[in-house]
Amino acid sequence: MGNNSYVGIDTIPPVVFNCPSDTRQSAELGNLQVAVYWVEPSAVDLLGTVILEEATHRPGEIFPVDSSTDVSYIFVDNSENAAYCNFTLTVFTGTCFNYKFLQPAIQPILSICPDVDQE
């Protein structure tokens, strides 16, 4: 009696979870760079192991203010099928101000609102 097992070729890429959407992060006025954090994506494959082959940036990295950066993750399974997570991270100077008047004849003092994370 022979072995009737069928061995096929895996052509299905891994499935990516938690891929962030395009993200905007504010920085306090005067800062030239800011550390940005996000939940990293992950991937699974029904037929094997998945490895993170490449991540162009990682949570906690420092990014310059007034810039946009493309972030990419590439996951690969045992059969070299690839899955991708791509998003754009934009860091900008915060624009929320709190006007405090000390006296009517004095110009207002501007300060950044402390809890502005995204616009």
Describe it.
There is one protein chain. With 119 residues, this protein is mainly β. The protein has one domain (15-112): Immunoglobulin-like, CATH 2.60.40. Helices cover 0% and strands 45% of the residues. It has strands at residues 15-17, 23-27, 33-35, 42-44, 50-55, 62-64, 67-77, 82-93, 97-100, 109-112. It has a four-stranded mixed sheet with strand order 2-8-7-5, with no helix packed on it. A hairpin with a 4-residue loop joins β7 and β8. The model is unreliable at 96-119 (pLDDT under 50).
What's a concise summary of this model?
The chain is an all-beta fold and 119 residues long. 0% of the residues lie in helices and 45% in strands. The protein is built from no helices and 10 strands.
What's the topology here?
Elements: E1 15-17, E2 23-27, E3 33-35, E4 42-44, E5 50-55, E6 62-64, E7 67-77, E8 82-93, E9 97-100, E10 109-112
Parallel strand pairs: 2-8
Antiparallel strand pairs: 1-4, 3-6, 5-7, 7-8, 9-10
